[in-house]
Structure formats: C-alpha cells, structure tokens
Amino acid sequence: MKQKIAIIGFGTVGQGVTEILLKKRTYLKEKYGYDFDIVAVADFIYGNVYNPNGLDITQMLNETKEKKKFTKDLTDWDNITLIKKSNATVVCELAYTDLKTGEPAISHCKAAFGAGKHIVTSNKGPAAIAYSEMKNLADKNNVKFMIEGTVMSGTPVLNLTESPLAGCEISCARGILNGTTNYILTQMEAGMSYNDALKKAQELGYAEADPTGDVQGYDARAKVTILANVVMGTPLKISDVYCKGITDISIDDINEAKKQNSRWKLIGSVKKENNKITASVAPEMIDMSHPLAGIMGATNAITLTTDLLGDVTIVGAGAGKTETGFSILTDLIKIHNN
Questions:
Q1: Which segments of the chain belong to CATH 3.30.360.10?
Q2: Maximal C-alpha separation, the chain
Q3: Is CATH 3.30.360.10 the right assignment for the domain spanning 161-317?
Q4: pLDDT tens digits for 214-230?
C-alpha cells in the first residue's frame, strides 16, 4: 500500500526529502517494497496544495528553484485543516519552529495525532519541549512519533540506540552536537580569532546571521534534552540542562589546550549514575587520545557508553539538506516496515 505523505514546511529539509524520494522511488520500491504519494504540502512562502492522488512534485521543486509560488492543486485550507482533512497517513512536520514554545510544530503534531496520523520530524521543538506529551498522544492514537533527525541530522543516533544497540544499557551519551561551534573552534586552533572564525562560518552557511542559538549552546542543549528523554528515559526539561557556550574561549585557551595535548570542544552530555541523571552543555578540553578530539570542522559525533560494548562512537554530518532529508526517509521507511 502506498504511503500518503503530507509535508508541512517546504524549506531546505522539505525539499531535501522530496528530492530524495523522487530520485530513489524505483530503488525504494524494489529494495523495500516502499511506495508513496506526496498528497499535501504547506509552506508560508510557496502556498498550500493538496491532491489526494498525489501532487506533481517535479513541478513544485522547479517552482521553488525559481522562487515562485505553487500554481497547481492550490487549497485554501490552513496547515491544521490540511493535516486533519487530507488523506495523508504520515505528516512530515518540517516548519520553522520557536525553541522557546515549540510552536507551531507542537500544534501540528497534536493535530496529526488526533487525526490518527504518524508524525516524522526533524524539528527539535516538540521533542525537546514536550516529548512525554507527544509520545503519549501518539501511543494513545496508535501512531508513531518519529524524531531521528532531531539530534544529529542524518547520522543515526536514536535509531542506533533502539535497534543495533538494543539490549545494551547506555549510561552516558556525550558528544559534539553542533557543527557550527565545532567549525569555529577548529578555525581558532588554526590561528583565527573567534570573531573571524564566526564570520567565516556565516559566509559558509554554517552559522545564521544571528548565531546565538549555536554559540551560546542552546541548540546543543535542546539535543541533550532529547537524548535524556529518549535514550535515558528521563523526562528532563530544557531548563534542567546546564548550558555554557563557546563565546569566552580565547586563543590563549586554545594554546593552553595544545600544551596539555588536548583540544577544546563544545560537549553535550547526559549521564546516568546511581539512578541520577546529570545533563550539560559546556566547552571541555578533550584529551587527544579520545575519539571526539579528532572530530574537526562542521562534523558531529557522539560517544555512547554501554554495559556490553563499552564506548561506541558514531561520526557524521549534523546538518544539511540531503543529510536531514535522509533522516526523514529512514523514519518513513521504518513506519512502512512496521
């Protein structure tokens, strides 16, 4: 049976997953028996469209490349109505979301669950702010709340802990969860000042015009909160996570770390010890012998401490159009397989 998909938010990630689905349609059907129709798309720039038999996604992608509004299958339904009334079985919630309130993503998720539809999202808001509520609503309505892309984009972390590492108890998860800050620290080690490294990161698109969420550690803090909730099964709130960014790191600090055979990294960490959870985001000097010390540039990595395998470190991209689009694809296939 074809999976019917609604995409809420047709920006970088929405377009990314759509391009992947279009490009790999034949492969996905032959390999996994997975077929789909994208039946609804909502975007505040391009417009809201709906066709129960499937939209012309090639035309839509061409229109976005030309910065044009959608011209076919237009609807006057708002996002919530589109989620509720469309024949979509899965809603990909990819709209821009405020990390303080989790909106509008939380409202989109609630609408989908209430209508008996699965949610797949890379938005940190619902998972970091209201994970327990979202999971309970999904379970109550016998649907899934899939959030693989919320921590390290397409690099599998949550799915890794739930499937390949099933049976292992994880006592600690600590890693480099923000590529922007890792890039800045890498450039500073090469001799750049903090301000010059930040400017370069902005030029390359790693950092936003307002980089506060990255350099103050807020982005990593939301991801640590998700790890605590999902991996550790502990309902932490964002406000429970100690947070310090990299803005006070100086060239002198960088050089001092070199003398100690270490390297500065912004580390997000959640640890369970004696049934107590501690969670934090802060710069740490990491000894060169540790795998995290070798992670340079905009790359992400996380080390999971397990009882059966010891430390397991996974390294990969923490952002990007295709990479985050892939995280959405993995969750879509997982829903199909289940």
A1: 161-317
A2: 64
A3: yes
A4: 999 999 999 999 999 99
DSSP conformational letter for 234: -
- Of the candidates 4, 124, 135, 223, the residue annotated as catalytic is 223
Strand blocks (E) in the chain: 3-8, 36-43, 47-50, 90-93, 118-121, 145-146, 170-176, 242-243, 262-273, 276-287, 299-306, 310-317
Handedness of CA 267, 275, 225, 41 (dihedral sign): positive
Please give the Cα distance from 14 to 46 (Å, whole number).
12
- The answer to whether 259 is a known catalytic residue is no
| The 242-243 sheet, strands edge to edge | 242-243, 276-287, 262-273, 170-176, 299-306, 310-317
Rounded Cα gap, residues 133 and 245, in angstroms = 29
pLDDT in tens, 230-242: 999 999 999 999 9
Cβ atoms of residues 105 and 121 within 8 Å: yes
Residue 253 burial (10 A CB sphere; 0-12, 13-18, 19+): middle
Q: pTM of this prediction?
A: 0.95
15 φ, ψ (degrees, to nearest 5): -70, -35
How many whole angstroms separate alpha carbon 15 and alpha carbon 322?
9
For 33-42, the pLDDT digits (tens) are 999 999 999 9
| Three-state DSSP state, 186 | helix
Domain with CATH 3.40.50.720 in the chain: 3-154+321-337
Which homologous superfamily does the CATH classification assign to the domain defined by 3-154+321-337?
NAD(P)-binding Rossmann-like Domain (3.40.50.720)
